[in-house]
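User: Please work through this fold.
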Amino acid sequence: MDVVQQKLGVLRTHLDQIPVLQQLEETAKVPKEHLVLGVGALLVIIIFFGVGAGSLCSVVGFCYPAFKSFEAIETKIRGDDTQWLVYWIIFAFFSIIEVFADFLLYWIPFYYAFKMAFLLWAFLPQTRGAKFLYDSFLKDLLKKNESRIDAALADAKKQAGSIGGDVAKVAGDVMAEAQKMATADDKKDE
């Protein structure tokens, strides 16, 4: 029991450096180390049992990197911009794969725990996993298929413009017909 108290004391010393936790401790009347351990346990349960795990993974995979990207934009250091651009490329690639493989992912036990670990590995500055994946695999794949990707995007843009024009024409025709009907109804009422 003394070992547990000693570890809690060490944790408390680290948590004393976070003013928000001090305020939370005073408000809740619960020691901050217990609050942090409780929230951590809750997050572990959420991730391993899947209740809201997808949303939690999305928040973790988006919020911290988005804030760090904002900070990188606002500083003059170029290396951090590159790190976060590479992360967003990996995040987008992972998200696209996940959309198409969603029906298979349902059957993988602890998928969200693995996804959370992957996202943390990808964006933490200590690991720079996204940079590793980009340099090792994705860069060569994208460079090799760059012309085909550009052609597909150009074709999609052209088709989207054509479809948009068709939708606008149909919407205009519907509005004109509705106006004719409204005018005819007004003449009947007179």
Observations:
- The chain has three domains: 1-49, 53-135, 145-190.
- The mean pLDDT is 84.
- Residues 1-49 form one domain.
